[in-house]
Design brief:
It is a single chain. The protein is mainly alpha-helical. The protein contains 9 helices and 2 strands; from the N terminus they run ααααββααααα. The protein has a two-stranded antiparallel sheet with strand order 1-2. It is flat.
């Protein structure tokens, strides 16, 4: 691992530990953690093959004096004199259409770099506040991971609900109960008849079961899905 990455990771671990230890604490000063090594790591993590911003500066041009450019950016950021340049607006084709377009904002390389550096400061703090079922814009997670988790939860809920309904509506019983001359358990599966009209109400605990599970590991979206 690069030395800059190691230094940044150590600082992020300290921030995360403090945020987890004191969840009510407000962080009032983080800028002192941002140094030249921090910006070098932020630059390493910044995509460099994207379109240029309003200044037209490419990654190759910026790297011609990388150390000087990063030091200048650091001084401006810490002194409060940095001003984000305008975002270049372009229109790209809209998916599935040959005539419609959608707007896209392209910041400058340096602005993307500073944004990345700030994200690296704030991410360890807010990561402690997210639930395990949160996937949006989190490191190492994607929309595909969210769908996979949601499908797994729904499968478990449906499987559990089916077992609950089977237990309530058709509990197991000995084969020769009184009132069952043909040996069949029928719809109700017991020695006395349960009016069919009350069966839906016997299934209502399904939503409550889902709600109880949501307190621990079930995403709220899946609770709404099984209540429908």
């Amino acid at each position: 691992m690069h030395r800059n990455s190691t230094t940044v990771s150590t600082k992020q671990e300290r921030i995360a530990a403090l945020a987890k230890q004191s969840p009510e604490m407000a962080f009032t000063s983080l800028a002192y953690l941002m140094d030249i090594d921090w910006l070098k790591e932020a630059y390493r993590r910044t995509r460099k093959d994207g379109a240029v911003g309003v200044d037209g500066v490419t990654a190759e041009e910026y790297e011609q004096d990388l150390e000087g450019n990063l030091q200048s950016l650091l001084d401006r950021a810490k002194s409060g004199t940095y001003k984000a340049p305008p975002v270049r607006r372009v229109h790209i084709p809209k998916g599935g259409s040959s005539t419609e377009t959608r707007p896209l904002g392209i910041p400058t390389l340096e602005d993307k770099l500073l944004q990345r550096a700030v994200v690296m400061l704030l991410e360890p703090i807010y990561e402690q506040d997210f639930l395990d079922c949160s996937y949006g814009f989190r490191p190492g997670r994607s929309a595909h991971d969210a769908l996979t988790s949601f499908r797994a939860v729904c499968h478990n809920i449906l499987d559990f609900s089916a077992r609950v309904v089977a237990t309530v509506v058709a509990p197991p019983r000995p084969p020769h109960m009184p009132g069952d001359s043909d040996g069949s358990r029928g719809v109700n599966g017991c020695g006395f008849e349960i009016p069919v009209a009350i069966l839906p109400s016997r299934r209502r605990p399904r939503a409550q079961v889902c709600h109880r599970q949501s307190d621990s590991s079930t995403p709220w979206s899946s609770v709404q899905a099984c209540r429908q």
